[in-house]
Amino acid sequence: MQDLIKTTRRAFLSKTGLGLGSFALSQLLPTSQATATADKITGQIASSSQHFVPKAKRIIYLFQSGGPSQIDLFDHKPLLNQKQAEELPDSVRRGQRLTGMSANQATLPLAGTAFKFKQHGQSGAWISDLLPHTSEIADELCFIKSMHTEAINHDPAITFFQTGSQISGRPSMGSWISYGMGSMNKNLPDFCVLVTKDKGGQPLYARLWGNGFLPSKFQGIQFRSGKDPVLYLTNPDGVSPACRRLMLDRLHDLHQLQYDREIDPEIQTRVAQYEMAYRMQTSVPEVMDLSEEPDYIFDMYGSDSRTPGTFAANCLLARRLAERDVRFIQLYHQGWDQHGGLPNGIRRQCKETDQASAALVADLKQRGMLEDTLVIWGGEFGRTCYCQGKLTTIDYGRDHHPRCFTVWLAGGGIKPGTTYGETDPYGYNIAQNPVHVYDFQATLLHLLGIDHEQLTFKYQGRHFRLTDVHGNLVHDILA
Asked: pTM for the complete prediction?
């Protein structure tokens, strides 16, 4: 009886606290503001609570796991070729920290690139001959050459970019955006993840697209190639759609009884996820079916786009998900961690990613979608200007380099045909306009109409946010 009284009192206070508070606010605030406030109380900020007029509705993030070498792709440094095999000057290094993989090297010989650079488009962007397709869309891109991070190893660096913290446990960027903006499509998740299949390299963990301490409905959903694109979505043998529907209806009734007793929002989240899974039994096969895509689209993305699970196929799927108003689409492509054998390794990586990345931007533009879709390409850090391991005339490797590296963006309110930031002649330090990870994240949220300082969630007694007490807008890259 005592337990019943405690439960009833707790339920009463929860109900009246939420009900009376929401009613009072609804009388004091304009309708749209009252709606947004009530949604925050129940765990989601509605689209009406955006702080600015958004430039972008959705993001497609092409994450290149392992740390692509900016020295060999985007950041043209002819001085390195002129000083090939000379020692990195102490005046450039400035005693800065190295990884354990090259800290014990007797020398740090400078390594120029094995590839040719040219300027492309009216913008004159410097791009390596490894990326002929990216070169063709140079005037659509904004290159940030002065990205930097404190993380010097893969796991904390990737976690930092994806969650705003080097320590695991925080919500991912896609989860924050899903929480902050709400859904545009009731038949697909707000946040979808596509990982290139059969790629080696640094491991990827589901926590990179996890919801952290946000309600679980904001976690990313991984789509896979093969018979079951989303795990546990298909009905078991002998269970018909009608039977599944009946089961869900009765389960909803039971959950409602539990919610009325406990007022636990995760109960409602669980019901919502069951219903989403039921709708996805139809919507997921439809979006994964590429049979009606014309041949010229496959030619545009490259021959790999016909093979499910490749980066090219995932880029094409990303466009299809964007067409269906998925809010955040995250692609991961592994294999850029080239401590040795870089020339051959980076050739393979670029062959797998260059054409499809450029095709995605061009395809979105021809469909009128690029203006409200933000496309991002980049990794967790860059690579060193000096060689890790043995330097020869035809081979070299590069260690991790968090102090300056390059990412590019396109569409969604970004100023096209621009290059922002500059590194020193050695490509070791930032010379102009540094952009930290938090600045980058704050700018992405701004393009979606969100003030990064106001998108918060109270957990363990304090208000957390993606940029967590840091971050400044990079105004000069905004259109």
From this structure: 0.88
